[in-house]
TrEMBL record:
Coiled coil: none annotated. The chain crosses the membrane at residues 7-24, 36-55, 67-83, 95-114, 121-139, 145-165, 177-196, 208-227, 239-259, 265-283. Its main location: membrane. This is DMT superfamily drug metabolite transporter. It comes from Limosilactobacillus frumenti DSM 13145. It is a multi-pass membrane protein. Keywords: Cell membrane, Membrane, Transmembrane, Transmembrane helix.
Length: 296
């Protein structure tokens, strides 16, 4: 797979993640809390991996198990905090703070792995952050760090770690589906423990049919398909490019909201989206190959 194709795959993942905001909100509105939501999506994904990829699972190595366990814990904490934060803050604040992993990933790479960001990263990242801020109307409404915002911001740290470890460790696994199985298994176990110990009082108030439909869609599209594409594609691109492409989830979430009638087309959507697209175009372009920049 070429880097160009890998980036197209990651763009598709961002579209699917855009849908996930709607699915999560539907499940929360049906009375389901974060623990049960993660338990359901994890369990469904585990069953899917066993049914479709059992031969690969049988060849799981000790390295696969350790990496999958680490990524599973990171993934569960990130999803749990992000989903729980969405109960207390607005979708705009949640989307903006979640996609801060784009900024955090290269910073974590620099401080803990001593990998210096590319020069154009310093130009692109502020534009990307500004685009998300405009897109989600955070600038006009004012971003106040409430409890839900704090949970979401902490989740962004774990999303940044997942981006990094996907590229550094998961790419060396025997099969991406082994890692996805381990992530889903940890998600399922931790989700059930959380749900059964802290959320039992909420069970009678859950509208199970309304909640399970989006949970199934989350499990199949987001955890199973999108994560498989992400794991495969990140072998062939860098962490910063992956982060910038994946953060387009907030743009696609807004666009889907307009198309489905949940929101109206606004200047913030247009301007913020264009800034994000511009940031990604700059990041994906080899500036030295442009004839206008070549030395004659």
């Amino acid at each position: 797979m070429t880097k160009k194709k890998a980036n197209w795959w990651l763009l598709t993942v961002a579209v699917i993640w855009g849908f996930s905001y709607i699915f999560v909100k539907m499940a929360l509105n049906a009375g389901m809390h974060s623990g049960m939501l993660n338990a359901g999506r994890g369990t469904i994904c585990v069953l899917g991996c066993i049914i479709f990829f059992f031969p690969q699972l049988r060849r799981m190595t000790k390295f696969d198990f350790k990496v999958g366990l680490l990524l599973g814990i990171i993934n569960f904490v990130a999803y749990f905090l992000q989903t729980d934060g969405l109960r207390f803050n607005t979708p705009a604040s949640n989307a903006f703070l979640t996609t801060m992993y784009v900024v955090l990933a290269p910073l974590l790479l620099f401080f803990f792995w001593h990998e210096r960001p590319r020069l154009k990263t310093y130009f692109v990242l502020p534009i990307a952050v500004l685009g998300i801020a405009i897109l989600t109307n955070v600038i006009s409404s004012g971003l106040q760090l409430q409890y839900g915002d704090l949970l979401t911001l902490i989740s962004a740290i774990f999303w940044a770690l997942q981006i990094i470890y996907f590229g550094k460790l998961a790419s060396r696994a025997s099969s991406p589906w082994v890692i996805i199985f381990m992530i889903a298994l940890v998600q399922s176990i931790c989700g059930w423990i959380t749900a059964l110990t802290t959320e039992q009082a909420t069970f009678p108030h859950i509208h199970w049919l309304q909640a399970m439909i989006p949970v199934v869609l989350l499990a199949v599209l987001v955890t199973f398909i999108a994560q498989g594409m992400q794991l495969t594609a990140q072998k062939y691109t860098d962490a910063t490019s992956a982060g910038l492409l994946l953060m387009l989830e907030s743009f696609f979430a807004s666009l889907l909201s307009v198309l489905m009638g949940y929101d109206h087309l606004s200047w913030s959507l247009v301007i913020g989206g264009l800034l994000l697209l511009f940031a990604n175009a700059v990041m994906q372009t080899d500036l030295h190959s442009l004839s206008i920049l070549k030395k004659h």
